[in-house]
Amino acid sequence: MANKEKSNQQPEFTKEQFLVSKSYTGLEKDIFRALLDDNKTYTKDQVREIADDFVKKEVQ
Q1: CA distances (Å), 45 to each of 1, 17, 51, 59, in order?
Q2: Is there a contact between 42 and 36 (Cβ–Cβ < 8 Å)?
Q3: What is the DSSP annotation of 7-32?
Q4: What is the pLDDT of residue 59?
Q5: What pLDDT score was predicted for residue 1?
Q6: Which element (helix H / strand E) includes 3?
Q7: Cα distances (angstroms) measured from residue 15 to each of 5, 26, 44, 58
Q8: pLDDT tens-place values along the chain, 60 residues long
Q9: pLDDT at position 6, please?
């Protein structure tokens, strides 16, 4: 059962991998540069959610 759960998990990438990816715009990469931790890994869904939350935040 544990192997099946692992195969359903999305791959995780480092901040640097997202910054060099051609899948994201310059604005998205700027958000990643500011908000992602250098020492953590993230799934594509996680960074999409981080970027979306940041963009939706009200300016103070």
Answers
A1: 24, 14, 10, 24
A2: yes
A3: HHSPP-EEHHHHHH-TTS-HHHHHHH
A4: 80
A5: 45
A6: helix 2-8
A7: 25, 14, 11, 25
A8: 454 455 568 999 999 999 999 999 999 999 999 999 999 999 999 999 999 999 898 887
A9: 52
Taking the C-alpha atoms of residue 14 and residue 47, their distance in angstroms, rounded to an integer, is 10
Q: Are residues 35 and 54 in contact, defined by beta-carbon separation less than 8 angstroms?
A: yes
The whole-model pTM stands at 0.78
Q: Which of 41, 47, 43, 10 is nearest to 29 (CA)?
A: 47
Sequence-ordered list of residues with C-beta below 8 angstroms from that of 31, at least 6 positions apart, any chain: 50, 51, 54, 55
Contact assessment for residue 14 and residue 41, using Cβ atoms and an 8 Å cutoff: yes
